[in-house]
Amino acid sequence: MPTFDARVPVYEAWPPLYDAILELSRVGHRSGLDARLLQLVDVRVSQLNGCAYCLDMHTTLALKAGEDERRLHTVAGWRDADWFSEAEKAALALAEEVTLLPASRPSPSTVDEARRHFGDDGVAKLLLTIVAINAWNRVNVTAEVRVG
To answer: What is the mean pLDDT of residues 46-72?
Structure first.
């Protein structure tokens, strides 16, 4: 059973569903896509959603995966940083547009650019991984999971 401080005890309330979301995340990170790329995506989505718990976790995991601190510090400004590859920029653009879905739909050009770098299979894996981190962000922010 997970141990963390939360206002709403999500694990205790419904362990099977919590475990299913956890497995979705684990499978996404075993998709064959680059581990550093997926951590950058998780960090960026967590920034957009304001999830301190996930930001703490995924910046730590990104560093363990070999990510550079400078890139982590600037991922929010990825469009203006030359040290992100075109493939990373495509993934981050898709992550942002999927995360901000209530405001607008992901543009066909964003999806096409991601497909150019990752293919249909890679975009599907990336999309489902983005969905997983968004689920965690929403659970953790709403349940007021504390970093500590």
So the answer is: 97
